[in-house]
Design brief:
The chain has 301 residues and is an alpha/beta fold. Helix content is 38%, strand content 18%. It starts with a strand and ends in a 13-residue tail after the last helix.
């Protein structure tokens, strides 16, 4: 598995990462087996969050990676606090909260440091300087090695780029969501900040889920994009998953594409794909996007 540098850090991440959110906390043995096999197959980037399953996801991940903890890049996220009654969560973005929340994540993950700690959202109304101060303090204390942002909001991303030393931005990016290509991916690359992709398979629509409207695309437009994908896959002798992943990985701003799995079968499919990802040529991309209109972020600009 190819390894890529994460932003301006010394961290190296596998080009395919495991999104742990989909792991089932009530099937801990299966979840642990998935994490172990992923590592054995060359996946070294594992992403979770304190929000997922009210912290149980971090616990499963932490227990599963103990034997190879020093050989992976472990990422988690902060900024959402579950309500006491479990009815939902509220946005909490402050220095005090971040400094407190990391202690819970470290405990659940059974580690004394998190490689990549990400703000799990963000708005312009947040005390951004204070948030950055918290991340920098945690970095100086050795509790995190790098920090980043999980956001698709251009105005928030640009503000953090101007006020912080973020290493990465996790954002949705796929053949069905090419909004980052308008300006954000180029800006991040120029600033030495990596994209960590989520949603590369567009919730499965690009591989096996029924055709349906997606973002600003009608179902007819989604069907057209899917046909382009199928036709290119046949032409170059690859399957849809490989081509869909290769598309986002062909963007030089991208360091890793995080894919969520919940079963061993899904992991096996992902492993087969990661062994065959290719760098799509400009001609291949032109073929994929023939007759496809561009999408743009219409909010938070």
């Amino acid at each position: 598995m190819e390894q890529h540098k994460l932003g301006h850090t010394n961290l190296m991440v596998s080009e395919i990462g495991l999104g742990c959110m989909s792991l089932k906390s009530n099937q801990s043995k299966q979840s642990k087996d998935i994490i172990h096999k992923a590592y054995e197959e060359g996946i070294t980037f594992f992403d979770t969050a304190d929000l997922y399953d009210k912290g149980l996801n971090e616990m499963i991940v932490g227990e599963s990676v103990q034997s190879f903890r020093k050989h992976i890049v472990l990422a988690s996220k902060v900024g959402n606090l579950w309500r006491a009654d479990g009815s939902g969560w509220d946005w909490k973005a402050s220095k005090d909260y971040i400094m407190k929340a990391i202690e819970g994540s470290l405990s659940r993950l059974k580690t004394d440091y998190i490689d990549l700690y990400q703000l799990h959202g963000g708005t312009l109304e947040d005390p951004i300087e204070e948030i950055v101060e918290a991340f920098e303090l945690l970095k100086s204390q050795g509790k995190i090695r790098a920090y980043g942002l999980s956001s698709i909001r251009p105005n928030v991303i640009k503000t953090f780029l101007s006020k912080s030393d973020i290493a990465s931005v996790m954002m949705q990016y796929s053949l069905l969501d090419r909004r980052p290509e308008e300006e954000i991916s180029g800006l991040l690359e120029r600033m030495g900040v990596s994209i960590v992709v989520r949603g590369a398979l567009a919730k499965g629509v690009l591989i096996n889920k029924p055709i349906a409207p997606f973002l600003q695309y009608s179902s007819g437009e989604v069907a057209h994009i899917f046909r382009n994908l199928v036709n290119l896959s046949k032409r170059i002798g690859k399957d849809n998953m490989i081509v869909a992943l290769s598309y986002v990985l062909s963007n030089s701003a991208v360091s890793t594409a995080v894919v969520g799995v919940s079963t061993k079968l899904q992991l096996d499919e992902l492993i087969r794909a990661k062994e065959k990802t290719i760098h799509l040529s400009d001609l291949d991309k032109q073929f994929l996007l023939e007759g496809v209109r561009s999408l743009y972020y219409t909010e938070h600009r």
